[in-house]
Amino acid sequence: MKTIFKVISGAVVALGLLANTQAAVVTVSMTGDNILSGGICADTSCTSIVSNWSDFGPMTNSTNWRRSDTISLTLNPGIYGFAWLVENIRANSNGNPAALLADYSIDGTAFFSNSTWEVFDNNTGTLISGPTQYGSNGQSGLIWTNAIGGGIAGISTNANWVYTENNFINADRSAWVRTVVEITDTSVVDVSAPAMFSLVGGMALFMAFRRTK
Predict the structure, then answer these.
(1) pLDDT of residue 157
(2) Is there a cis peptide before residue 34, judged by omega within 30 degrees of 0?
(3) In a 10 Å sphere around its CB, with 0-12 CB exposed, 13-18 middle and 19+ buried, how is residue 95 labelled?
(4) If you write DSSP's letter for every residue of the chain in order, what string do you get?
(5) Cβ(160)–Cβ(137) under 8 Å?
(6) Is residue 106's pLDDT more than 70?
(7) Is the pTM of the predicted complex or chain greater than 0.85?
(8) For 137-150, what is each residue's pLDDT tens digit?
(9) C-alpha–C-alpha distance, residues 145 and 15, integer Å
(10) What pLDDT sits at residue 148?
């Protein structure tokens, strides 16, 4: 009988190990015209940054929009706010707009900067329902594409240059762009109660049969 209890206990522990959570691998690639900073927010409201992008890897191109930076990190299941502060070193104008270009992937599934993200005026704190989307990375005719003769290396062509609608006038020289990211637990094995009891029962009967031989 003790042997049966040991087998049952071992089976339950094994099932528990199968249900352990697993952190997701997240990769973020980004650039901003002209200065880029930001990181992971304390909550989805993004009232404060708890981890800067530079905490996860060097941001050597944070003041050079012509080149991108890529960092990698792991996050446990949960909901996070990813935020980028874009600052323009001169007044916004037709020849000097600001913008964010970014993409991130969660365990290989990619997401791209677009008009569904949120943008906040950095000076007034005003939430704008969504940033203006000015075109994709490398799209012909864009001021950024024309300036370097192509797209930004290291960032997907599905990513879009985004910023406030006041981009080409002397306003909104700094703004926050944010997106809410949900990390789901992909490692949990769905073992139904009947299946679990069948497994435990089967192992117990097997051991009981062995003891009667």
Answers:
(1) 98
(2) yes
(3) exposed
(4) -HHHHHHHHHHHHHHHHHT---PEEEEEEEEEESEEEEEEESSTT-SSEEEEGGGSS--TTTT-TTS-EEEEEEE-SEEEEEEEEEE-SS--BTTB--EEEEEEEETTEEEE--TTSEEEETTT-PEESSPEEEEETT-TT-HHHHHHTSPPTTS-TT-EEEE-TTTTSS--SEEEEEEEEEE---------HHHHHHHHHHHHHHHHHHHH-
(5) yes
(6) yes
(7) no
(8) 999 999 999 999 99
(9) 53
(10) 97
Q: Residue written as tokens 């080149």? A: 67
* Mean pLDDT (whole number) for 77-88: 94
pLDDT tens digits, 187-201: 333 333 333 334 344
What would the two tokens of residue 212 be?
Answer: 């009667």
